[in-house]
Amino acid sequence: MRIGLISDTHSNIQVLRRIVHEAPPVEMWLHAGDHYQEANVLEQLTGVKVIAVQGNTDPKSDEVKLDEFLELEGFKLWLTHGHRYIEFDAKSSMGFWAKQLDQDICVYGHTHIPMCEYYGDNLLINPGSPSRPRGGSEPSYAILTLQAGEKPKVEFYKL
Q1: Residue 146 gets which letter from DSSP?
Q2: Residue 97: CA atoms inside 13 Å, Cβ hemisphere, count?
Q3: In what order do the strands lie in the sheet with 49-52?
Q4: In Å, how far are 8, 37, 147, 149, 153 from 137, measured between CA atoms?
Q5: pTM for this one?
Q6: Which of 119, 150, 114 is nearest to 132 (CA)?
Q7: DSSP H/E element including 79
Q8: Could you tell me the CA-to-CA distances from 38 to 34, 67, 127 in Å, in that order?
Q9: If exposure means fewest CB atoms within 10 Å of the residue's CB, which of 41, 81, 137, 158 is most exposed?
Q10: How far apart are CA 79 and CA 64, in angstroms?
Q11: CA dihedral sign, ordered 84, 101, 77, 40
Q12: How far lies 87's CA from each of 70, 96, 138, in Å?
């Protein structure tokens, strides 16, 4: 299963259109917040399911959760923006919470910096931001490939 990962789009519909044009085919997209409303646009442009969560700059909504917990290809995946969990260091904070919540994979945003690292047994993925990169990073998104019984594979794409 190939899953597109995106976060922190911040109302840049032009960037979304470019990603849809350039991205390899995926079976679903996960939007880790900060302008989760663009998930609707992404779904319309791609025709595939998009799951989104609220970020710190998003309006409160009863229809969009702060955290989503999914089971995909035998992996427990936690989708969150991260702003409620990151204290000092994103890796240790998100790794701690992924372990506490018994999740194999954590997809988060908030920092706008792409990252894919293990924290113990927990895979932490931040796709970065396609519209407002930080920390010297370039505009980006990621593709996560999951297959039961195999190690997850993450590919980053720069715009």
Answers
A1: -
A2: 22
A3: 49-52, 28-31, 2-6, 140-145, 153-158
A4: 14, 24, 29, 32, 21
A5: 0.95
A6: 114
A7: strand 75-80
A8: 9, 17, 16
A9: 158
A10: 12
A11: negative
A12: 24, 11, 24
User: For the chain, what's the residue count?
Assistant: 159
Instruction: Tell me the two tokens of residue 154.
Output: 């993450």
- Tokens 């690292």 sit on residue: 117
CA distance 80 to 150: 24
Query: How far is residue 117's CA from residue 29's CA, in Å, rounded to a whole number?
Result: 20
Residue-wise pLDDT tens for the chain (159 aa)? 999 999 999 988 999 999 999 999 999 999 999 988 888 999 999 999 999 999 999 888 888 999 999 999 999 999 999 999 998 889 999 999 999 999 999 999 999 999 999 999 999 999 999 999 999 999 999 999 999 999 999 999 999
Angle CA(121)–CA(124)–CA(128) in degrees, nearest 5? 165
Amino acid at 94: M
Which helix (DSSP H) or strand (DSSP E) does residue 71 occupy?
strand 67-72
Q: Which residue has the tokens 């779904």?
A: 43
